[in-house]
Amino acid sequence: MAKRHVISLFDLTSDEIRQIFSLSAELKSELLRGLRRPSLSGHVLGLLFEKPSLRTRVSFEAAVTHLGGNSMFLGSDVGWGSREPVPDFARVISQYVDVVVCRAKIHQRVEELAANATCSVINGLTDVAHPCQALTDLFTLQEIAGSLDSARLAYVGDANNVACSLAVACAKLGVPFAIAHPNGYGFAKPFLDRVFEAAPGFELLQTGDPMEAVADATAVYTDVWASMGQEDERARRSEAFADYQVNERVMASAQSEARFLHCLPARRGEEVASEVIDGPQSAVIQQAENRMHVQKGLLQWLLG
Ligand code: CP
Ligand code: NVA
After folding, report:
1. Domain check: are 116 and 16 in the same one?
2. 145 and 86 within one domain
3. Domain span including residue 21
4. Which residue has the higher pLDDT, 303 or 3?
5. Atom of ligand 2 nearest to the CA of 133
6. Cα–ligand 1 centroid distance for 66 (angstroms)
7. Exposure class string for 22-59: b at 16+ Cβ within 10 A, else e
8. pTM (two decimals)
9. Which residues pair with residue 65 across a beta bridge?
């Protein structure tokens, strides 16, 4: 069977996402009971990163190690996209590793790698998508709500890579999604066309009002206003998003039991108030922990 790639969540069907969640839950429960199954013994994971990372890098390395495999971190010296043509790079690295996780400055470079690789390629974040994050987020939402059947996710902030992947994940899993953003920072129309083509019944609310977005939400999510690579836009974005902080007033408009989610790293006092991210409603550490369990599920599903 041809190797599967996960460049965005459009690459997975709803059933496949549910299978990954079920494997993740099984592996999480096993680890909590002290069991580590060597199901990926002898497998090799390459981590090709052009941007900084704590969660994605370390959780993938821990995940494959728990499953009996090995990982290797590949920094800029391997010359991806600079030392030789990407198709040559892809065909060569495929001889050595079973899966490559890429964090790239240019999304098209990940697509070109995947198009030429015979190993699996997983997107570990580009400007366009962060599929591993959104898989974990919906898995965490399922844990929080008990089931995704009655869950509703609200996102306040930039319609960035994380928000796009969340929208696709919600669309695929039938979870209503609401986003509040200032003018000019919403989803692009071609992206939304693709989401609705994949899931015509998707319930999406786009608004300029954070209170309207979070009304009745099971979880309220935000991310930084300026993503990696947008540092020179920080001043302009801070001004545009000034009314979009998730604070106690915003959380009070959600369900009384609502939890707060953030992919991290966070900027306290900007997109989220300390009282919220450090308060009792915050589930951000559970969410970060789940990165490892869900990526284990993903690796097991891809290679098992
Ligand atoms: N959330 C996330 O992807 O974190 P890192 O940038 O630390 O990997
Ligand atoms: N939107 C953020 C996510 C970091 C995990 C970024 O791309 O920098």
Report:
1. yes
2. no
3. 9-130+290-303
4. 303
5. 5
6. 20
7. ebbbebbeebeeeeeeebbeebbbbbbbbeebebbbeb
8. 0.98
9. none
Give the position, in ligand 2's atom list, of the atom nearest the Cα of 227. 8
Reading the block at residue 18, the tokens are 């549910």
Which ligand number lies closest to the CA of residue 61?
1
Q: How far is the CA of 54 from the centre of ligand 1 (A)?
A: 6
**Residue 292 CA: which ligand is closest?**
1
Q: What is the pLDDT of residues 43-55, one digit of tens each?
A: 999 999 999 999 9
How sure is the predictor about 266, in pLDDT bands with cuts at 50, 70 and 90?
A: very high
**Same-domain status, 28 and 160:** no
Would you say residue 1 has pLDDT above 70?
Answer: no
The atom number, within ligand 1, closest to the CA of 58 reads 8
Which residues are catalytic, by number?
103, 130, 133, 223, 263, 291
Distance between CA atoms of 125 and 290, rounded to whole angstroms?
A: 17
Q: Give per-residue pLDDT as tens, 195-209.
A: 999 999 999 999 999
CA–centroid distance, residue 108 to ligand 2 (Å): 17
The SS3 assignment for 144 reads helix
Rounded mean pLDDT of 156-179?
98
Q: How many domains does the chain contain in total?
A: 2
